């Protein structure tokens, strides 16, 4: 990617952090840690006692609490503002609407096509992020980045089953999963846009609230069990809210202020690698040679793209 990390970082307006190599290292660490935290989502959802849409609602609704605390305690840069108009609120609501719809659309695709196909297609969102960054954010794409992106995508293909990937799939279901990938890419791009003006805590609070309000009517319409049945069930949704949503997404939002969005989205391809390892440990799902090789290829692709 011709636009280096320092060039991308100067696009933000944080008055508290300076654009230094140390800040960029912190941003990369935050991005990787955020990716690791949200990689726990599929495992936690598997243990949830409610349906997928209601689980998504509680994940977001309960995350509002730490977001409110964080937003009240955080200091904001001199040239970072809080929303003070309907236009500001609308801009901040867009990422939440996008991620809320992405969660719903992705879960719908899981009922129409194989889990492998759906997860794979959603993980192709970096392609749309790179294209969107090029079209709308003027971020140039180098051959080195493209080769790293291609290598990482090949790794995801291998991770999800190698030559047996196709399996039992539905063209319509695959198309719905593709819509989810586009929605997630749009979410990442909008984070990059809003992060130039607003602080991480402000963005995450507004995004979480708007996503919650987006999913609520869908949960009421399409599902009938609205509450976890046991203390363990509440523990699961609280972990989803506070660990994967509040902590994970906040770290990613912070990192996007200092890193090109295309590289940021590519690094998040570590999610299927981590999810596969956690499934092996916690759910006794065996790791095949394809999954191990795929994970190594994904990491190699990330390292290659980082050089661009």
From TrEMBL:
Keyword vocabulary terms for this entry: Membrane, Transmembrane, Transmembrane helix
Membrane-spanning intervals of the chain: 27-45, 51-69, 89-108, 120-137, 144-163, 175-194, 201-220, 226-244, 256-282, 288-305
GO cellular component, one term: membrane
Superkingdom of the source species: Bacteria
Signal peptide (UniProt feature, chain positions): none
SUPFAM superfamilies per UniProt: Multidrug resistance efflux transporter EmrE
Record-annotated EamA domain positions: 26-159, 172-303
Family matches, as Pfam families: EamA
Protein name as annotated: Drug/metabolite transporter (DMT)-like permease
Species of provenance: Pseudochrobactrum asaccharolyticum
């Amino acid at each position: 990617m011709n636009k280096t990390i320092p060039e991308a970082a100067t696009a933000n307006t944080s008055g508290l952090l300076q654009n230094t190599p140390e800040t960029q290292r912190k941003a990369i660490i935050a991005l990787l840690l955020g990716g690791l935290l949200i990689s726990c989502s599929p495992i936690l959802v598997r243990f949830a006692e409610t349906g997928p849409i209601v689980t998504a609602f509680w994940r977001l609704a309960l995350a509002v609490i730490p977001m409110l605390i964080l937003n009240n305690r955080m200091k904001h840069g001199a040239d970072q503002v809080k929303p003070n108009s309907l236009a500001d609120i609308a801009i901040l609501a867009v990422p939440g609407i996008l991620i809320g719809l992405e969660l719903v659309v992705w879960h719908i695709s899981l009922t129409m096509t194989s889990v492998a196909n759906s997860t794979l297609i959603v993980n192709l969102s970096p392609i749309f992020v790179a294209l969107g960054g090029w079209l709308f954010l003027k971020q140039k794409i180098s051959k080195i980045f493209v080769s790293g992106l291609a290598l990482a995508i090949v790794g995801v293909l291998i991770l999800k089953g190698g030559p047996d990937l196709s399996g039992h799939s539905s063209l319509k279901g695959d198309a719905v999963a593709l819509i989810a990938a586009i929605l997630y890419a749009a979410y990442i791009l909008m984070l990059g846009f809003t992060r130039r003006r607003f602080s991480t805590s402000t963005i995450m609070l507004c995004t979480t609230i708007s996503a919650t309000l987006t999913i609520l009517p869908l949960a009421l319409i399409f599902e009938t069990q609205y509450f976890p049945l046991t203390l363990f069930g509440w523990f699961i949704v609280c972990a989803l809210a506070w660990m994967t949503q509040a902590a994970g997404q906040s770290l990613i939002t912070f990192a996007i202020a200092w890193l090109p969005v295309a590289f940021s989205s590519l690094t998040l391809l570590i999610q299927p690698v981590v999810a596969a390892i956690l499934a092996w440990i916690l759910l006794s799902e065996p790791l095949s040679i394809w999954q191990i090789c795929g994970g190594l290829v994904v990491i190699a692709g990330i390292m290659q793209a980082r050089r661009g």
